[in-house]
Specification:
Chain lengths: ~270, ~300
Amino acid sequence: MVEQVAAQTNQTKTSTVFKIEDCDIYYGSYKAVRDVSMEIPPNQITSFIGPSGCGKSTILRCLNRLNDLIEIFHLTGKILYHGQNLYDSDIDPVEVRRRIGMVFQRPNPFPKTIYDNIAYGPRINGFKGDTDEMDALVERSLKRAVLWDEVKDKLQESGFSLSGGQQQRLCIARAVAVDPEVVLMDEPCSALDPISTLKIEELMMELREKYTIVIVTHNMQQATRVADKTAFFNAVPTESGGKVGYLAEFNDTQEIFGNPKETATRDYVTGRFG
Amino acid sequence: MTSFRGTSPESPSLAGLRKNSSRPRDVFNIIMTGLSVLCVVITLIPLVLVLAFVTIQGAGSITPALFTELPPPPGLEGGGIANAIIGTLIVVAIATLISVPFGVMAAVYLSEFSKDGQVARWVRFFTNVLSGVPSIISGVFVYALLVRTGLTGYSAVAGGVALAVLMLPTIIRTTDEALNIIPQEIRWASIGVGASRYQTVLQIVLPAAIPSILTGVTLAIARAAGETAPLIFTALFSSFWPNGILQPIATLSVLVYNFAIVPFEPQQELAWAGSLILVLLVLLTSIIARVVTRQKTY
Ligand SMILES: Nc1ncnc2c1ncn2[C@@H]1O[C@H](COP(=O)(O)OP(=O)(O)O)[C@@H](O)[C@H]1O
Ligand SMILES: [Mg+2]
């Protein structure tokens, strides 16, 4: 069944990777995000910015169905991936997550060797090759994450032996090792020093050639440096006393920062709140 | 120039900085510290006394024969407790083989798959109740289940099952806790590269938790190895070499219980020697548990 879906999506590969249609997202009865519609283009970097708690991570996690792990989560509306609704009942979330990889806020390598951190994903996805082919895959993934030169002599050491920035690049290498089409990144640099941050940003620019990248960031300079398109999310109070996030503005990054249409966007990007 | 004020230590506002042990607060502090030191000493006295007593009484009887020979017939000199040492190892091994797989799997269910539902809460509750149940109850239970029914009769297996019942709650609880300590992000990372729930548990979560699980298992073993009550009417006792796991079997704790109360001096000495070896075994397992804990990743 999954293969069928795969075949279909390959045929219908569109110029939009994700099309989010009228999404409301709930945690239990609490509506965290309302009425989001947007289109994410392929081989570009799309950034999500906005104040804390406006639902950026929530939306990002919907794109690879990671929110399924949160029991009280549910969603109305559609998230189309090359035209296929990811939340259709016959979609296998495990396969979705292989195609749409994720890098988290805090570097979270597995408690395994550097080599096994990379090899784990391909292995559980039924990698058929022999040891040499796996070695090559590990090397290729680490090179793609520009980490190879730093770790090639200590592949059998624990992933924890690396610095924070290196760990995060290891996580990126781990994500690309299963050959995804999209890489989602949730504030990947917020736990890193400025130099590691720059390295990761350079890396993102390179990865853009091959992958579609969606990144949540708190750092507006980062958004201007790397993102082709930027979505500004905002949160407004509701009558019931809570607050709900919504997509305030989505446009080319230059427009969002240079010529925002909404006052809220302008206030946010000029640092007046957030 | 402005003049500086209040910088001399003798100036009134700074005098309060100096130590002054006659203030009520400081007196109280000293008294409480003294009291807790006293309590520590009082607690340690029986512990040290027991260890010292067992060592002094038992050390004299430690001979090579102890580890190679059977106990002598009542009234005769010499002999050893080799059968009981082997017996304890066998019974504890059986108990471990039963309780570890069941306990670890139960804990995996509780921590990874139950989603904190009603079932999990009840299981956790009963596990806690079970860990407080007197050990003799587990002996009675297994006696009724396996011995009286003739399923195994008095045997090493019955003894092992009785000890397994005692070990289960400890293993479930420590494994449950060990799994809960593993950061959620690691599970998400594994799911994020396309792993299923059970692949994540088997290949990422459990391996990361193994040091903590082993610690729990060793502690459970240490406790079980010293139990007497559940063994008296399950494993019974034997003066001979172990003869298969479906026969009654000698164990150190039951040997101590039997030999300490007989009027023959050589038997009493063997009981002391047995006590010492039991204490050393428990000590050794506890040390192993400590060492293993140091390997923890989280
Ligand atoms: N696992 C969860 N369970 C319940 N509520 C959640 C959960 N995760 C996030 N939320 C709520 O959803 C809203 C959006 O959170 P989040 O997506 O983390 O925002 P952001 O990433 O923009 O800071 C917040 O009000 C938060 O409290
Ligand atoms: Mg967030």
